[in-house]
């Protein structure tokens, strides 16, 4: 049997031993044996050639080879085998069909594929590593299921930097409701992206991307991926052993990975931080607040910055009397614990449907494209709402409240606006007085020196008039600050 030497492919009459590698034709990716961190165990994996420190895929992550005598070969019917020194099978591929002339090849995308010599199109792949991701996602790799098979593609973190066996965290598409991307720790949600809003997953960071997102959501298909605009740019998305999802870009000049972003980004990204019916605003202190119309279930716990118990309605709703909706702008929509979805309704129809259903607690558009469409309704507590600043992530939700609660909120907001406007006007008047005082002192000083000056932007008569008006208890809204208010 022949051994491969710096080739990109193996045929049934060849094999690859520890110390040899397959290299993609563009010299970007490499397949071979490695030992992670401080471990002496050997694994078959893929990495970027000449770039240390990042393994992109591992074949035998559950069963390491304990010596340096591993052998990779492909059978005549198209099954890939990894043997140890004793010829025991450590790992093998699960081919979808048998091939008469199979070949295993490392592609320029970083995808290891088994195909037939007579056809190299993606549709003819017998097996591919992209269908069995480990902790890293590359461009062209899809997460999800239903691609004419029963596979569920998702990321699983390493146990540690020294051990690539499956760790505690997974990153996958959660399809309970509208599809969203979720980091799980075991069965518990740690982070969720928010639902697909027609353009993107609203809770993921926005950056200038060299990739085009692909999202398919049908009855028999659900997957998410991205294709590169420019294949010369290499990025990876990795779920690390601590549950942090990190996006890196390869710096071709320094030949090292540069971190672009990571999620969770901040405390507000932690799932359900503010408890039921709470909202997280990262730029406020404290960052957790109850939604308008709600109060803490345990004031004592909230004062200790323990928000897990969440909030309860101040006044009950559910066809109790006159009711309406409060618009909460620019948020990540709540999680889907108990919901209803209709993709054909508009927002007005959605409001009417929610209002006549006594159990409906809130509603929103499911899609933000084209001015908004679709109807989402929630029937229980609202979990994991956070406020966003960037426009592309913003969605609005309408929360059901009693009419008296809505009036109270309206009156409170009106008073706040009045106070802010008056405060700004008073500050404006004080600035005018200060400017006048400075001018008088400066003028007298100049006259003593025999100098005559005029201010370029103001004349003394204008300032005197403004000062006189202010002194008779008129507060001026000048400089674009707003209307004039009479202070009594």
Describe, in short, the structure shown.
The chain is built from four helices and 37 strands. It has about 500 residues and is an alpha+beta fold.
Characterization of this structure:
The structure is a single chain. This protein is an alpha+beta fold. It has 3 domains: 1-132, Agglutinin, subunit A (Orthogonal Prism), CATH 2.90.10; 135-265, Agglutinin, subunit A; 408-486. The protein is built from 4 helices and 37 strands. Strand 9 and strand 10 (89-92) form a beta hairpin. The longest helix is centred in the C-terminal third of the chain and has 46 residues, at 403-448. It is elongated, with a radius of gyration of 32 Å. The relative contact order is 0.07. Involved in sporophytic self-incompatibility system (the inability of flowering plants to achieve self-fertilization).
């Amino acid at each position: 049997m022949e051994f491969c030497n710096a080739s990109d492919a193996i045929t049934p009459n060849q094999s690859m031993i520890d110390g040899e590698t397959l290299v993609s034709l563009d010299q970007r990716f490499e397949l071979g044996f490695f030992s992670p961190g401080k471990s002496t165990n050997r694994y078959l994996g893929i990495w970027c050639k000449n770039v240390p420190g990042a393994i992109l895929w591992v074949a035998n992550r559950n069963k390491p080879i304990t010596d340096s005598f591993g052998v990779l070969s492909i059978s005549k019917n198209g099954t890939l085998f990894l043997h140890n020194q004793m010829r025991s099978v450590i790992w093998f591929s699960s081919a979808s069909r048998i091939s008469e002339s199979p070949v295993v090849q490392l592609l320029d995308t970083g995808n290891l594929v088994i195909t037939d010599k007579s056809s190299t199109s993606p549709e003819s792949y017998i097996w591919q590593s992209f269908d069995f991701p480990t902790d890293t996602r590359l461009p062209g790799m899809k997460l999800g299921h239903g691609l004419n098979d029963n596979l569920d593609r998702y990321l699983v973190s390493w146990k540690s930097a020294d051990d690539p066996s499956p760790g505690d965290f997974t990153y996958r598409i959660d399809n309970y409701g509208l599809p969203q991307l979720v980091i799980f720790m075991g069965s518990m949600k740690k982070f969720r992206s928010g639902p697909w809003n027609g353009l993107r997953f609203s809770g993921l960071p926005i950056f200038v991307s060299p990739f085009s997102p692909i999202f398919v959501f049908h009855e028999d298909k659900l997957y998410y991926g991205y294709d590169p605009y420019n294949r010369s740019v290499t990025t990876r998305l990795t779920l690390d052993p601590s549950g942090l999802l990190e996006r890196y870009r390869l710096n071709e000049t320094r030949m090292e990975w540069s971190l672009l972003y990571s999620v969770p980004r901040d405390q507000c990204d932690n799932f359900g931080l503010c408890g039921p019916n709470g909202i997280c605003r990262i730029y406020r202190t404290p960052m957790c607040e109850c939604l308008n119309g709600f109060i803490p279930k345990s004031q004592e716990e909230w004062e200790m910055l323990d928000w897990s118990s969440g909030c309860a309605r101040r006044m009950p709703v559910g066809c109790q009397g006159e009711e309406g909706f409060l618009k909460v702008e620019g948020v990540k929509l709540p999680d889907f614990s108990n919901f209803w979805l209709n993709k054909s309704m508009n927002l007005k129809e959605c409001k009417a449907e929610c209002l006549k259903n006594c159990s409906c607690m809130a509603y929103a558009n499911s899609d933000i494209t084209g001015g908004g469409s679709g109807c989402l309704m929630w029937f229980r507590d609202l979990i994991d709402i956070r406020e966003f600043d960037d426009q592309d992530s913003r969605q609005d939700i309408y929360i059901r409240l009693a009419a008296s609660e809505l009036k109270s909120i309206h009156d409170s907001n009106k008073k706040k606006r009045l106070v802010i406007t008056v405060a700004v006007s008073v500050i404006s008047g004080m600035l005018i007085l200060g400017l006048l005082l400075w001018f008088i002192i400066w003028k007298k000083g100049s006259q003593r020196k025999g100098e005559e000056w005029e201010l370029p932007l103001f004349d003394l008569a204008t300032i005197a008039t403004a000062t006189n008006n202010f002194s008779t208890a008129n507060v001026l809204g000048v400089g674009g600050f707003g209307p004039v208010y009479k202070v009594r």
